[in-house]
Structures are given as structure tokens and as C-alpha cells.
Design brief:
The chain is of the alpha+beta class and 483 residues long. 28% of the residues lie in helices and 25% in strands. It contains 16 helices and 23 strands.
Length: 483
């Protein structure tokens, strides 16, 4: 199999390469009620709360009177909902939605989710929304194509969709069970049929998914608990690794598909991706980030005049560092919250200047000061280097850089868009070489041991820090005869 098939960055625009953080994943949201509800507003609010997980495209499918209707649109959540002429056409009893960041497949409209399947009468019978990334799907795709199944998109999600569709005559629950025994990777999925909403999660639980309750007739599913808050639902519990949740007229029921499932949720959800007000696997995201800052001070204390955090995900760690050290936290980096990702910039000099559009300092507060600057991570090092230059140009006397994550030394193939190892600066430079590259007085990263302690266990995926993953892509072999 061609090894470049899963290199998501081949589809990324060149201007995006300047961002010095792992890029977003995707967010999924679903609601089911035994009664007619305001599905249009609920899925809109839920996806809006998950907008941080992807800003390239948004889509939703609504079940109304036994028919599934789908809308997909490039851009932000509100762009998709503004494109709907009549909200009444999308008022039903169930809905699923997806906000997208490309991690597999290209950025064409046919890859926007939810993806759906139709029967011979041109009626949509299944719609799915997927957060994660499958591995080794090319043999499956080729096998299905040989059987006469037509593919309309290029994403891993459609391979999953067509597999479920192939077995759908056995019922949606059996179709999903048959499908997941033939795929490998990370997946938290919502599937909408003519009478059910089904959720299922991979046996390692790599991507998050939780359940909420609005009333005795209405259930909600979402990537993060902040989306439950956004629609007024009460958190019930997380979907377990390897579990399938079925919601229909009879209520909610569960089935464990993988008996030997284990929890290996992505540790980067806590470091960067999730909203700080979310709770994932009973761990408060905000608390993890605060504790990371405290640990950074314990690891490498330094005398300084102020602590600053790179907005937004670096700020809680900076506050934690400030509390542990007694050094004042100062919000002197101002973020432009309206910047998009669509700049087309021909020269390297101007590409670097875009950092000033994203973040700009308050010069008078920085001049002559010894500064501790904390970011959530260092990926390529480009933005970190530019930030240091901005602070020096503002007159900073000393700069001590701290990363609230361990060094990123390996790419992710399980639903996060991180660069090829060649572009991961911690994989190619020693700590001292990186300090010299950034031109800072000192540099430190959160240690893996500290991260284990903060999370309370090693039951997470730490692949980007260790190169060891819960899914062994290299040794996984697809059993085509089982399809």
C-alpha cells in the first residue's frame, strides 16, 4: 500500500504550514427525541459549541417524518445554517451534525460530512458523522469497488459508510458490528437512520464522545460536554470504548461490541483541542491545563517579572505557573479573533508577518521585563520563534519559553493533523539547539512523567510524544476475505 495515502498534509494549503500547533480534528453532535423538537436550532447550537474542533465546513442531517434531509456548506457553522431558506424543513425528531477539519481525504465538497447513503428509490437511508481517522482502508475500498460499490468521496469516512450500507439488510446494529470488526483506527461516529440514532466508538476510545439528557424523551450525543451545556442538556456519561449506543422510540440502550476494549483517549484533547470548560472521561480540561503550568514551575523555576500565555490554550497553563511561582500573570498578547485560514501569501517574509495579525503585544507592559511565555506546545517552531522576536522587539529583557506539553516527536495518524516528522522541530533538534533556534534564555517542556501524574494514569494515547500508538498501523493487515 502506498505509504503517503494517509499523509493528510498533502491536501493542506501552503499558507497553513505556518501555524505552530496541531490542527483541529472534527466535532460531532446528535439529538434524538420520541417527539418532534426544534432540531434545527438544537443541532445549530450544539455544533456552534464545537466550532473550535473544525472550521473548514459544516453539515447536518435531520430526520423528519421518516425522511433524512442533509445540508452541507463550506465555512463556519453559522454559514451552513444561514444557507437554509426554510428552517421548518429541518424540524424533526432527530439530527446529527459535523464540523470539519480535514484529516483524511481532500477538501472538496463531496467529503463534507455527514455522508449519506441512498436506496434504489433515491431515498436517504443512512447518514453518518465521524471524528477520527481510519488506517489501512485502501484494500477495503478496492474490494468494495470490485463488488460494484461506487464511491463519491475520497475520505476514510465513506469507506465506513459503504461497509455499513453493504450490511444494512441485517439491520443497522448488526451492520455496524460487522463493519467495525473490519476496520482499524480512531472513530467516534453518529449514525442516523429512518428510525434510530446510533453512536459507536473504537475499542481504544481515542476520540471523545459523551451522552446528555434533555428530558425523558430527548437524548443528546456530542464530542465534548460543552456542547451539552450549549443546548441545556445534562451530562449523563461518556460512551465507553468499544461501545454502541442505540436510541429509538424505546429509549436508550447499550451494547459492548469489543469485550477487550481499553481506554486510550488522546492526551492532546486535554492539552490543546478540547474547550477548557469541557469534562472528558471525568477529567476537567481546564484543571489539566492549570496543573500543567504548576508542574512547569516545579520542573524549572525561574526569576521573572511576568508570566504570559499564548491565547487561548496557553493561558490556563500560564495562570497555573503564575499561581505556583507568585509571578504575576499578565494578558499582554492580544489575539485577533476574526482571523481566518484563507490567506494566500506569496513570500516567506509576509507569511511570517501573519503572526502579528494573530497576536500583537502591549509594548509598554513588556519593555525591560523578564518574561516567562507559555504555549500549549511547540510543533514546527515557526510561530514560537516569531513570538519571541515580537517580544524582543517590544523590549523584553529576558525570555523564558515553556511548553505545556512534552516535545512532539512523532506525527499522528489517528485524527489530528500534525506534520511529517521532518517538520517536527523537537524530533530534529536537541533541547539546547531548539533554545538557540528560538533565541530564548531558557526552555523547558512538560515532562511525560508530569503529564502522567496530571492525567492520573497512563491510559491515554501519547503517540505524538513517544512514537508508540494504541493502533499499530504498520503491522495491521486487512482480512479482505472477511468483508
Amino acid at each position: 500500500m502506498h505509504r503517503d495515502y494517509y499523509k493528510r498534509n498533502k491536501y493542506r494549503a501552503a499558507e497553513n504550514l505556518l501555524y505552530d500547533s496541531p490542527e483541529e480534528e472534527c466535532g460531532v453532535f446528535g439529538v434524538y427525541s420520541t417527539q418532534k423538537i426544534d432540531t434545527f436550532s438544537l443541532v445549530q447550537f450544539g455544533l456552534f459549541a464545537l466550532q473550535h474542533r473544525g472550521q473548514e465546513a459544516c453539515g447536518f442531517s435531520v430526520l423528519k417524518d421518516g425522511f433524512i434531509h442533509t445540508v452541507k456548506q463550506e465555512g463556519l457553522v453559522l454559514d451552513a445554517f444561514k444557507s437554509v431558506e426554510s428552517a421548518e424543513d429541518f424540524q424533526g425528531n432527530a439530527a446529527i451534525g459535523h464540523t470539519r477539519y480535514t484529516t483524511a481525504g481532500d477538501k472538496k465538497r463531496y467529503n463534507y460530512q455527514p455522508l449519506f447513503a441512498k436506496n434504489q428509490y433515491d431515498k436517504t437511508i443512512l447518514s453518518i458523522a465521524h471524528n477520527g481517522n481510519l488506517v489501512c482502508i485502501e484494500p477495503i475500498r478496492k474490494k468494495l469497488e470490485q463488488e460494484g460499490i461506487n464511491f463519491l468521496a475520497t475520505s476514510d469516512t465513506e469507506v465506513m459508510l459503504r461497509l455499513i450500507q453493504k450490511y444494512l439488510d441485517k439491520g443497522i446494529e448488526n451492520a455496524i458490528k460487522q463493519t467495525v470488526t473490519n476496520i482499524e483506527g480512531a472513530y467516534s461516529v453518529l449514525a442516523l437512520t429512518e428510525n434510530k440514532l446510533v453512536a459507536f466508538r473504537d475499542p481504544n476510545g481515542i476520540r471523545p464522545l459523551c451522552i446528555g439528557i434533555m428530558d425523558e424523551n430527548t437524548y443528546v450525543l456530542a464530542s465534548e460536554s460543552c456542547a451539552l451545556d450549549g443546548v441545556g442538556a445534562q451530562f449523563f456519561r461518556d460512551v465507553l470504548p468499544g461501545e454502541m449506543i442505540i436510541i429509538d422510540e424505546e429509549g436508550l440502550r447499550s451494547e459492548i461490541i469489543f469485550k477487550k476494549a481499553q481506554q486510550r483517549i488522546c492526551s492532546f484533547e486535554y492539552i490543546y483541542f478540547a474547550r477548557p470548560d469541557s469534562i472528558i472521561e471525568n477529567i476537567e480540561v481546564h484543571k489539566v491545563r492549570m496543573e500543567s503550568g504548576k508542574k512547569l514551575y516545579e520542573q524549572s523555576p525561574v526569576d521573572a517579572d511576568m508570566v504570559i500565555g499564548v491565547p487561548d490554550s496557553g493561558v490556563p497553563a500560564a495562570i497555573g505557573y503564575s499561581k505556583a511561582s507568585g509571578i504575576p500573570f499578565m494578558p499582554v498578547l492580544i489575539k485577533n479573533r476574526y482571523i481566518g485560514r484563507s490567506f494566500i501569501i506569496p513570500t516567506q517574509e509576509m507569511r511570517e508577518r501573519i503572526v502579528n495579525l494573530k497576536l500583537n503585544p502591549i509594548h509598554s507592559e513588556i519593555k525591560g521585563k523578564r518574561i516567562v511565555i507559555i504555549d500549549d506546545s511547540i510543533v514546527r517552531g515557526t510561530t514560537s520563534k516569531r513570538l519571541v522576536k515580537i517580544l524582543k522587539e517590544s523590549g523584553a529583557k529576558e525570555i523564558h519559553f515553556r511548553s505545556a506539553s512534552p516535545p512532539i516527536i512523532a506525527p499522528c495518524f489517528l485524527g489530528i493533523d500534525t506534520p511529517d516528522k521532518r517538520y517536527l522541530i523537537s524530533s530534529n533538534k536537541t533541547r539546547e539547539e531548539l533554545r538557540e533556534y528560538l533565541k530564548v534564555n531558557s526552555l523547558d517542556f512538560l515532562s511525560l512523567e508530569s503529564l502522567y501524574e496530571i492525567l492520573g494514569s497512563k491510559n491515554h494515547c501519547f503517540g505524538c510524544f513517544t512514537g508508540k500508538y494504541p493502533v499499530n498501523k504498520e503491522n495491521y493487515k486487512v482480512d479482505i476475505s472477511a468483508l
